[in-house]
Amino acid sequence: MATPVLIPVEEYLRTTYRPDRDYIDGELKERNLGEKPHATIQGLFYAIFHVNRKHWGLRAFTEQRVQTSEDNYRIADVCVLRLGEPDDPIVYAPPLICIEILSRGDSMSEMQERVDDYVGMGVENIWILDPLRRKAWTANADGIHKLAGDAFTVPGTPVRIPLSDLYAELDDLAAGR
């Protein structure tokens, strides 16, 4: 196993990566993405939050840097903040929701590490969707759980995103529509 090349956090923060990478304890971690099912679901989540931003009082960002601890930065597929949060280029306070979309090369053990970082930061709503296997989970300090019900929701808010809406978009993609 090769020894990882560590870089200072200051270098990470002033460097542009394409695509952006997680920064964990001085090491750059590549993310799996770039396939249509992932991009479709990511775009759909963003679009739903964008259309409802004023009604829900939220704003979504794709591929947003989130500082989960002093030396760790994760790139959330979709990060959802309440309106009025500070307008910093990096998210420092716990987002309302972090959404992760599995790609072909992702594993649940790697996802557990991401969830642990988000939970450690104080994120209460973590949504995970596997567009290829059509499975969905929520995560919190108690672990990763199969989605209970047929929609992603945030208790105490009007946020409700039915899985059927997400899967219909995947069906359209597969049918070339």
Task: Give an overview in words.
The protein has helices at residues 9-14, 36-51, 53-56, 108-121, 163-175, and strands at residues 22-24, 27-29, 58-69, 72-82, 97-101, 125-130, 135-140, 143-146, 151-153, 160-162. It has a single domain (33-175), classed as tt1808, chain A. The model has no long low-confidence stretch (mean pLDDT 92). Strands 1, 2, 3, 4, 5, 6, 7 and 8 form an eight-stranded mixed sheet that branches. Strands 9-10 form a two-stranded antiparallel sheet. It is globular and about 45 Å long. Helices cover 30% and strands 32% of the residues. Strand 5, helix 4 (108-121) and strand 6 (125-130) form a beta-alpha-beta unit. It contains five helices and ten strands; from the N terminus they run H-E-E-H-H-E-E-E-H-E-E-E-E-E-H. The chain is of the alpha+beta class and 177 residues long. Helix 2 packs across helix 5 (163-175).
Oligomer: single chain
Report the biggest beta sheet as strand number plus sense, adding barrel if it closes. 8 strands, mixed
What is CATH's topology name?
tt1808, chain A
> Can you give the mean pLDDT?
92
Mass-distribution shape:
globular
Q: Strand-residue fraction?
A: 25-35%
Report the order of strands and helices: HEEHHEEEHEEEEEH
